[in-house]
Amino acid sequence: MTKILFATAEGPPLDAATTNDLLGEAWGAEADLVVVPVERLADGFLDLSSRIAGEVIQKFTNYRMRLAFVGDITARTKASRSLRDFVFESNKGRQVWFVNDRAALDARLAAEG
């Protein structure tokens, strides 16, 4: 069974500087997966040229902590082919997911068994 830490929408925006705090919270909770609402993402996070997403995801990957972003980013993926491709490729694996809502997250987790 996957142990999940649900980050709140309130709190410091998720960026490279705040990632360690969230990872520490996840380790303290003995979580396998951290779920972050898209409202918590730092300005520029979904602009891949800012490198914020890459830095955050790399830290989670280095520590073998899974990460899911929950919320509708359709408008952003429609406006950016690179973001759309990044989300598509991320969702193929197990390490990082972008899902529209909690139901979609639950479905992904159920499919894993």
From TrEMBL:
Superkingdom as given in the UniProt entry: Bacteria
Pfam families to which the protein is assigned, alphabetical: DUF4180 (PF13788)
Organism of origin: Caulobacter segnis
Domain DUF4180 per the UniProt entry, residue ranges: 3-109
Stated name of the protein: DUF4180 domain-containing protein
